[in-house]
Every structure is written in structure tokens, then in C-alpha cells.
Amino acid sequence: MDEKSLSHTKWNCKYHIVLVPKYRRKVIYKKLRKDIGKILRTLCDYKHVEIIEAHAMPDHIHMLVSIPPKLAVADFVGYLKGKSTLMIFERHANMKYKYGRRVFWSKGYYVNTVGGNEAAIKRYIRDQELDDQMSDQLSFKEYEDPFKNVADFDEDDSPEIPTDSRISK
Hints:
Blueprint: E1 4-5, E2 10-11, E3 14-19, H1 26-46, E4 50-56, E5 61-66, H2 73-91, H3 95-99, E6 110-113, H4 118-139
Antiparallel strand pairs: 1-2, 3-5, 3-6, 4-5
Helix pairs in contact: 1-2
């Protein structure tokens, strides 16, 4: 077990956290994916939080982190979202004109304790993008042209559509 220690405690607190940008903006991640990763790693180092596994999807970020027990998870996530927003808008000043109000992350987040499922969650985080791509390919339906084997309509075969002169009033 990967137990860590403080002065009088031994601890093993691991959490799966998912952060989502406001309106799930996918465009931002294409441009800023590496920079957001650096910012999140820096902020985690400041609070002595270890990132065990992380992956940036096109519209959200998964993180498996080890948070010391002296830090509340809600406080840490609030710190992470708040400071990273400020740093992102500081480094990319042109974004405030396009997206306004300096709000990068949505209000909520997902957090789950890992427990004994650490290997499964690591695999899930690592392979989720590939799994999403595979499920997208499976969900594509190839439709056949419904009129492929139908003979061409002649003028005689078309249904009669009444004109204004034939409509009785």
C-alpha cells in the first residue's frame, strides 16, 4: 500500500476528480491542452498534491490525485479551479474577449474516492479517449438509399395535386 505520513498520521487518500469547462467548450482544449496540464500540475505541486494519472479529453479533464488529509477535497477543487482560471486568462488574454467574464470552469465537478479500485480507475482514465472513439465509430449508422431500387416516376405515376382552379369553394 502506498501510505504517506505526516507528523502523527499515515494516510492513503486518493480521489478521481473530473473538471468540466463552462459550456463544455471543445475549442479551448485543442489550443490550450498542454498549457492547462502544466498549470494544473503547478497548482497541485503548490498544495503538495500528487497527480497519479491525468488525461485531458476534448471537453473535460480526468485526474487521479492523492490529497493529504489536512486538505479538504472541496477546498482543493475550488482552489484548483479558481487559480487555474486566473492563470489561463492571464496567459491567454485574448480569450476574455471571446468568452467574457473570466469564467473557464463550470460550477460543478465530480469526485469519487478510489478505495481498492486504483488500477481500474487508472486504466479508465488512460483508455477513455480510445473507448469514446471506438463507441463513436460503432454508433455511426450507414443508411442505404431508400429509393435505390424504385423505378423512376413517370408523369402518370405521380399523385395528383389539386391546383387552385380545381379546388371547390
